[in-house]
Design brief:
This protein is 32% helix and 22% strand. The chain is of the alpha/beta class and 488 residues long. The protein folds into two domains: 237 residues, FAD/NAD(P)-binding domain (3-Layer(bba) Sandwich), CATH 3.50.50; 224 residues, FAD/NAD(P)-binding domain (3-Layer(bba) Sandwich), CATH 3.50.50.100.
C-alpha cells in the first residue's frame, strides 16, 4: 500500500498479533515511526521461553522470565497493548477479529499486519498424549509440570509399595533437543543433590531419569563433538539416554517405546514432552486466506521479505512461517525477523516503496545447558563445553531478559543455586486441584486464556464466523510433524 493512497487525516494502523520475541521486536523497531501500533496477545506478559524449564524445576520464579507486556512497551507512546485472543483474519477487508477475556468481540482494522503467533506442542498425531506428557510453551505449562514433578516425590514419600514408589520416581523426557536435554539434566540435579536430605521414606537418588529420542544423537542440530560431550555428561549425572527410540503409546501409568531392541513398556507416572512443535492455528488461517495449505508442521510459506504472497501489507514471522532457507524455530530467528519487519514498515510509511532486500538470518550460535556448571555452545564456529560453556550460556541468556531487575534476580538465583548445594528456592506445588500424574491433566491445569478454556468457547467472531469454531477447526485439521527444537 503506497503512502499516497493513505488517508492523510490519520496515521497508518499497524496490528501486531503476538507479544513474543518476534512481536515485541517488531513493535520496538517501529519506535518513532509515524504509525499507531496495536499489539494483541492472549496473555498479558512477554515470555522468555528458553528458561521455562528452570521454572518447572524450581530454580526461577515465573515473574523473572515473564514481564508484563505493557511494562515492556510502556515507553513507546505509539503502541497500545490489548489482552485478547485472535481467532480470524480477513485479508480482503483488512480486519483482525479477536475476543476479550469477557467474550467481547473486537474488530481491529489495519494498514499493515504482523502475525507472530508462535507455535505449540506437536504430538505426532496423538493429541491424547498431552494429558499424560505435558510440554512447556507457557508459564501455566511450567507450573503444571513443576507441580507434577514435585508431586510425584510427595506421593512416593507416602506410598508403602516399593514398586509404586519407583513408578512415581521414574521420569521420562521425550525429545533430546535443547529443551529435553536441559530438563533431563535438571531432573538429575533435583534427584541427586537438592532433594535427598528432605525426604525420610524414600531415597530420591534412586530416581530414574530417562531421555528418549528417535534421532541417533542428542542435540541433533549441534556439532558431533558437542553431541558426544552432552550424552557422556548426562550419563555421568545418572540420566539414561535412549537414542533411535520413539514413543508409540502412553497412559497415566506408563509409556511404551520402540527402540533397536524392540518395544518396551516403561512404568512411569511422570512424562514430559519436548519432541516437537506445531505452528499456531493462525498460520493455517493465513494460508487459507491466500488459497494455499500450510506445510506438515502447520507453517505458512512467506516471500523472501516475509510478506504473505499476494499481500504486501501482511507479514508473518517466527515459528509459524516456512522460509526458503528453512530457518530453525529459535528465539533469535524470530527476533531478527521482527526487527526486519518493523524497519520495513517504518520505511514504507516514510515513503520508501523500493523492493526491500530479502531477510537474511545471522546465526549467533547455539547452546544448551546440561546441568549446574555444564553447558555446550557453538558460537561462530567455536565449540565450547563445560564451565566456560556454562558462563557463555549464562551471559547470553541473562542479557536477553528484559529489565535489569529480572536480570539481577535471575543471576542471584543462579549464584545461590550453585553455591548452596544447588538450592532451589521456588519449589511451590501451585496446581492445587490435583498434582497426581494419574489424574486427568484438565483437572490439574489452572485456568488460563487459551483455546481450551471457557473463554475460547464464548468469544465471538466476524459476522458469519465463530472465532472459537474457526480456531478449533484449524487446530483439528493441522498436520503434525516434528521440527527442530533449539534454544535461543
Amino acid at each position: 500500500m503506497s503512502t499516497a493512497s493513505q488517508d492523510a487525516t490519520r496515521r497508518p494502523k499497524v496490528v501486531i498479533v503476538g507479544g513474543g520475541f518476534g512481536g515485541v521486536q517488531a513493535a520496538q523497531a517501529l519506535k518513532g515511526a509515524d504509525v499507531d501500533v496495536t499489539v494483541v496477545d492472549r496473555t498479558n506478559h512477554h515470555l522468555f521461553q528458553p528458561l521455562l524449564y528452570q521454572v518447572a524445576t524450581g530454580i526461577l520464579s515465573p515473574g523473572l522470565i515473564a514481564p508484563a507486556l505493557r511494562r515492556v512497551l510502556k515507553k513507546q507512546r505509539n503502541v497500545r497493548t490489548i489482552l485478547a485472543e485472535v481467532g480470524e483474519i480477513d485479508l480482503e477487508s483488512k480486519v483482525v477479529y479477536a475476543a476479550a477475556p469477557d467474550g467481547q468481540r473486537m474488530e481491529l482494522p489495519y494498514d499493515y499486519l504482523v502475525v507472530a503467533a508462535g507455535a505449540t506442542h506437536a504430538y505426532f498425531g496423538h493429541p491424547e498424549w498431552a494429558e499424560h506428557a505435558p510440554g512447556m510453551k507457557t508459564i501455566e505449562d511450567a507450573r503444571l509440570l513443576r507441580s507434577r514433578i514435585l508431586g510425584s516425590y510427595e506421593l512416593a514419600e507416602v506410598s508403602s509399595d516399593p514398586a509404586e514408589q519407583q513408578a512415581y520416581m521414574t521420569f521420562v523426557v521425550v525429545g533430546a533437543g535443547p529443551t529435553g536435554v536441559e530438563l533431563a539434566g535438571q531432573l538429575a540435579e533435583l534427584a541427586n543433590f537438592v532433594l535427598p536430605r528432605e525426604y525420610r521414606a524414600i531415597d530420591t537418588r534412586k530416581a530414574k531419569i530417562i531421555l528418549i529420542d528417535a534421532a541417533p544423537a542428542v542435540l541433533p542440530p549441534f556439532a558431533e563433538k558437542l553431541q558426544k560431550y552432552t550424552k557422556k555428561t548426562l550419563e555421568e549425572k545418572g540420566v539414561e539416554v535412549r537414542l533411535n527410540c520413539m514413543a508409540t503409546d502412553m497412559d497415566a501409568d506408563s509409556i511404551t517405546v520402540k527402540g533397536p531392541d524392540g518395544e518396551e513398556k516403561i512404568v512411569s507416572r511422570t512424562k514430559v514432552w519436548a519432541a516437537g512443535v506445531q505452528a499456531s492455528p493462525l498460520a493455517k488461517i493465513l494460508a487459507q486466506g491466500i488459497g494455499t495449505e500450510p506445510d506438515r508442521a502447520g507453517r505458512v510459506s512467506v516471500d523472501p521479505d516475509l510478506t504473505l504472497p499476494g499481500h504486501r501489507d501482511v507479514y508473518a514471522v517466527g515459528d509459524m512461517v516456512s522460509t526458503i532457507d528453512r530457518l530453525p524455530g529459535v528465539a533469535q530467528v524470530a527476533m531478527q525477523q521482527g526487527t526486519y519487519v518493523g524497519k520495513q514498515i517504518a520505511a514504507r510509511v516514510a515513503g520508501d516503496e523500493a523492493t526491500p532486500a530479502p531477510f537474511s538470518y545471522f546465526d549467533k550460535g547455539s547452546m544448551a545447558t546440561i546441568g549446574a556448571r555444564e553447558a555446550v555452545a557453538d558460537v561462530r564456529g567455536a565449540k565450547v563445553t563445560g564451565w566456560f560453556g556454562y558462563l557463555i550460556w549464562c551471559y547470553v541468556h541473562v542479557m536477553f531478559l528484559i529489565g535489569w531487575g529480572n536480570r539481577l534476580g535471575t543471576l542471584y538465583n543462579w549464584v545461590r543455586a550453585l553455591h548452596y548445594a544447588r538450592l532451589r528456592g521456588h519449589r511451590l506445588i501451585s496446581v492445587t486441584a490435583s498434582y497426581d500424574p494419574q489424574d486427568d491433566a484438565a483437572t490439574a491445569r489452572p485456568e488460563r486464556m487459551d483455546s481450551t478454556s471457557e473463554l475460547a468457547d464464548k468469544k465471538p467472531g466476524p459476522p458469519d464466523t465463530d472465532v472459537a469454531g474457526a480456531r478449533e477447526a484449524a487446530t483439528k485439521d493441522t498436520a503434525k510433524e516434528k521440527s527442530p527444537d533449539r534454544a535461543s
